[in-house]
Structures are given as C-alpha cells and as structure tokens.
TrEMBL record:
Gene: nudcd1
Any Pfam family hit: CS
InterPro entries listed in its UniProt record: CS_dom, HSP20-like_chaperone, NUDCD1
Subcellular locations according to the entry: Cytoplasm; Nucleus
Keyword annotations of the record: Cytoplasm, Nucleus
Signal peptide: none
Name under which the protein is recorded: NudC domain-containing protein 1
Organism per entry: Sinocyclocheilus grahami (Dianchi golden-line fish)
Span of domain CS: 267-356
Record's GO cellular component terms: cytoplasm; nucleus
C-alpha cells in the first residue's frame, strides 16, 4: 500500500466564512415533460448480486449521460436496445428523443448475467458503448452538434473491425466478479480494466487499418471506486476509493514485483540511558572496558555536547534539545563501566523529549512519580463511565454527540494517481472524513472534476495532471450539505448545485446573489446584501429517478417512462 505523499490544498479565497444558510424560495421552476415510447433499460439487481459493491456500481447507476461538448444534449439507452438522444433548443417545443444507435442483439433478452448498459462520450466525434453483457463497441458519431440525425457508425466491436485513419481511445471498464479466494469477505473482487484500443495494426501500403486492443492493464481492489478517470493522452489514471487499488497484470501476464530487500536491523542495546527532573537531565553512557579518565574527551557548550573515547568515533555529538548551564553540569566515571553526565537545565520545568536532536540511540527511563503524573494528566481521556463528570473543564468525548461528518470509515478513502508507464502511484492523498459526493465534467478537454465534503461545505476539485505541485486544484465551493440523496451534481459554471431523492423531489442550491433591497440580520445587527436561495421541485411521477444531469441552464431528470427538463437559469 502506497503511503500518502501529498494533500489537497484548499483555496481560502473560495470559502465564504460569513455564509449563514440557504433561504427557501417559493419561485416556481418551469418543468417540461417528455414521455418516452419505451421504458429505460433499467437493470434490477438479482439476488445473486447482493453485496454493497453491486449496489454502488449498478444499483445507484446514473442512466442519463450528458454531452460535455454540446450543451443541453443528453443520451440514454431504452429497453429496445436503442441509444436515444434529446437535444434542447427551445423548452416549449421539446421533440421526441432521436435514435442514434441500436444494439444488434437485445441485451435484455440475452441469457446470463446482465448489467447496466453504459455510454462514454470520449470526444466530440467518438463514443464508447458497453451493452452490459460483456461487449464493448467504439462508435464514430461525427460532430454530434451539427448532425443530430446521422446515426452512429460502429468502428470496433467483438463482431466487426472497420478500417479508418490512425486513432487511439483509452477506456476504463469496471467489473465485479466472484473471487473463490476471498473466503473472509463478500466473495467478490473489483477490477478496473484499462484498455487501449487503436488501429495501428496493418500499416502497410495495401493493408487496411483495423481496430484492436493494443494494451490491457488490470487494476484490482476490494471496493468499487468512487471516481476513476483516464488522463488526456492516456498518460495515467486517477482513482478514488475506500481501499487502495494496485496493478496486477498487463496483457494477461502478472506483474513481476522486484524482490524486496530485507532491511538491516541492528539489535544493539542502547548506548546510553537518561532520566530527567524539572531541573536537570542525567545520562549514563556505556563505555568500553578498561576506559580511564584520561581516555575521555568531554566538550559541553550551552547548546551542544560531544563525548569521545580515545581516537574512536564520538559516542555523543550534536545539538542539545534545550540550553544547559555548562558551569553547573558535571561528569564522572562509575564502576569503570559507564560515564554519568549531569546537565543542568537553564529552563526549569521544561520536559525534554530527547537529549541530542535526532539521536535515537538512547533509552528514556521514567520514574514512578513521573508515570503517575502522566496518568493523571491523561485520565480525562478514558473512563469506565460514558460521561462521569460533564461539568469538568475537559469532559470525556461523547460518541453520541458526533455528527455524520465526524465519523471515519473503517478504511480511510484514498485518492491516487498512477503513472501510465510505470503503473506505480505517483501522488497519494488520504481523504479521511472527506466523503465523496459526485463527479462532473466541467471542461470537455480535461478530466472530470470531483466534489468532496469538507465539514459542512462541498468543495469541487479539478485534476491537473500536468501540474506537479498542485495536481488537484480547488475550483469552487458549495454550501449545500444535505446527505439524503440519490444523485448530486452541479452546473459547469458553478452557478448552482442540485441533488435529487429516489422519488419526486429535486433540490436546487444557488450560489449567493445580490438583492435589490438590503435585508437586516437582527442577531448580528448588520445588513445583508446577498442571499443564497434554495428551491424544491416536485416531479409529476411515481417512478424512481434513474438519471440526473445538469447544464448551466437546465436540469435533466430521467425516470423509467419520462424525461423531465427543469429550466433553472435563463
């Protein structure tokens, strides 16, 4: 397991310490409804897919996909095996979703285990599509914003190989499969397959360029990742999960880890023992046999000590933990075996944590009186009773008073960046109690951003793999902190954040905006010129929410039989 080697740097200028709360706004949100002629291809988990990882990966799957290159254009797969698109130009004149592609075989009618069909719009002219039963298809879509009625052309699948110009696509595939070796856990293992597909094969003058899998790398773990994305040009991947991932094999061959060299550990005894009081420090240094007073070279200054025997290397040499009084300090040889040094402290009452800075060859001996004092100082941290004396200055911690954001998961989540060449982690961040909230594509030319909870705020982070010192940049802050949700997202321009419950209700949290007339805060006796509004919309359906996406102007909410469009901004 790689240890954390960096941290997330919060931009204080993006925080609002004066933020109080959201004000519920009764302003209506225009909502438009598109009835679907076929239900969404929802896959309900079978009894055999019972683990929490199955629920996270497939039970909470977002069936709606937004096009980051062309605003207000969304895609989904219906029960007829069609990839449908709805592009909004005028809210009051919404048409029916258009068919862009159809599976050759209906995934729902196939035998065996079936999962959610997933779509990834990899560029302005390409897309990757998985049918949920193990087949991956690369599609050439042309410029989607200019050709809404041109059907997509499959360029690579298990059934066909079509020639084209040289082109490379990086794809991440998630698998949750049974693991017979996992006898103590859920019995399932989680893997990410990082696949590179290109048409470099057949580069002769008369040979067709055919697409094929050029490289396949396997990453395994014991938990479904919260976030996984490939860097531009495939130089690496970024993964956020509760348990750290690690590469296991490349092109089906297991990775050969270099043998770990045994660490040389010296089992030598301490060369000196030391004790202290509030006034002095006493050292007992072990001496070679036959050492006399004339062999000792002792030098003591206010802040440094040097002890040497004959022409040998110094036994002690370095800066003292704190200043001493050389005139009041002494040394003597005891029983021809040890050198006893008494150092008089200049600052009485100061307890030393070590004698010479950085020297770990000594052993500290604590007196019984000091042990008793230390136990009394720490006694308030432990007690047989939950809260024996709550009126004390330092009452013990009461777990019942902790909020959800104070709880730490059993395994602290990590954010890791892997290099594509070495397959080793280059940047590791321990997320601790910063719960993962959602991911969103802000700029189509960059990796998706991800949102983490920091105390009661939601901070949005943008991966910057080309920046060595600031790989993850804090780009925006939301003050929404509602936890009971199914999906959450935000507008690409950060004007609002939104979340929805499993049924009906959608919550919109707008950034603080100026008001024409100042409000008066009676508690703080000050005027308020900005208000953050919260709005609630109720959808006219009893079907569960299956998809949830946001643009700068609109919210798209997908249910089994309807696609709702909420006009959030003008």
């Amino acid at each position: 397991m790689a240890l954390p080697n960096c941290s997330l740097k919060v931009n204080r200028e993006l925080l609002d310490p004066s933020f109080e709360s959201y004000r519920l706004s009764l302003d209506s949100i225009p909502t438009y409804n598109v009835e679907l002629d076929a239900a969404v291809a929802e896959v309900k988990l079978k009894d055999s897919l019972y683990t929490l990882d199955h629920v996270r990966a497939f039970g909470m799957y977002n069936y709606l996909h937004i096009d980051p290159w062309y605003e207000d254009s969304v895609y989904f797969v219906d029960s007829k095996g069609r990839v449908l698109n709805l592009t909004v130009t005028l809210d009051t004149a919404l048409g029916k979703p258009c068919e862009m592609f159809r599976f050759e075989s209906d995934p729902i009618s196939c035998e065996g285990e079936q999962l959610c069909a997933s779509l990834s719009l990899t560029s302005a002219t390409w897309a990757a599509l998985s049918d949920g039963i193990g087949n991956l298809t690369l599609l050439r879509t042309s410029k989607r914003g200019e050709s809404l009625h041109i059907k997509w052309e499959p360029m690579f699948s298990d059934l066909a190989h079509v020639h084209s110009h040289v082109h490379t696509i990086e794809v991440l595939l998630l698998r949750v499969q049974k693991d017979p070796s996992d006898t103590k856990g859920s019995g399932f293992s989680i893997s990410l397959e990082w696949i590179t597909v290109d048409n470099s094969a057949g580069q002769g003058e008369n040979e067709e360029r055919k697409y094929g899998v050029r490289k396949m790398r396997m990453v395994k773990d014991k938990s479904v990742p919260h976030y996984a994305a490939v860097e531009p040009q495939g130089k690496g991947i970024v993964v956020a999960s509760e348990k750290p991932f690690a590469f296991t094999d490349v092109d089906g061959l297991p990775l050969e880890e270099p043998p770990v060299e045994a660490m040389e550990v010296e089992n030598s005894d301490p060369i000196y023992f030391w004790q202290q009081t509030e006034e002095d420090v006493t050292l007992n240094v072990r001496l070679p046999e036959g050492t006399t007073k004339d062999d000792i070279c002792f030098k003591l200054a206010v802040d440094c000590l040097r002890v040497r025997v004959g022409d040998h290397a110094p036994l002690l040499d370095g800066q003292l933990f704190a200043p001493v009084d050389p005139e009041a300090s002494t040394w003597t040889i005891k029983d021809d075996k040890s050198l006893e040094v008494s150092l008089q402290k200049r600052s009485k009452g100061l307890l030393w944590s070590e004698v010479i800075l950085g020297d770990r060859r000594g052993e500290y001996l604590m007196s019984d009186e000091q042990k008793s004092q230390l136990q009394q100082r720490l006694s308030y941290l432990t007690s047989e009773d939950l809260n024996p004396n709550p009126e004390k200055d330092k009452p013990p911690c009461n777990a019942q008073e902790l909020e959800d954001c104070d709880m730490f998961p059993e395994d602290s989540s990590t954010l890791m960046r892997f290099d594509g060449a070495t397959l080793k982690p280059t940047h590791v961040v321990s997320l601790g109690s910063h719960h993962f909230l959602f991911s969103v594509r802000i700029d189509p030319s960059e990796m998706p951003a991800f949102c983490l909870r920091h105390d009661v705020e939601a901070l949005l982070w943008q991966p910057r793999p080309n920046q060595d010192n600031d790989v993850w940049e804090h780009i925006s802050t939301f003050n929404a902190s509602k936890r009971d949700k199914k999906f959450a997202t935000c507008a690409p321009n950060f004007s609002y954040a939104a979340l929805c419950e499993c049924l009906r209700r959608v919550f919109i949290y707008r950034q603080p905006s100026s008001v024409d007339t100042a409000l008066f805060n009676r508690k703080q006796a000050r005027q308020v010129w900005q208000v953050a509004k919260q709005q609630v919309a109720n959808l006219d359906t009893n079907d569960p929410v299956l998809g949830f996406r946001a643009t700068n102007e609109r919210l798209f909410v997908l249910t089994a039989n309807n696609l709702f469009v909420l006009k959030v901004n003008n």
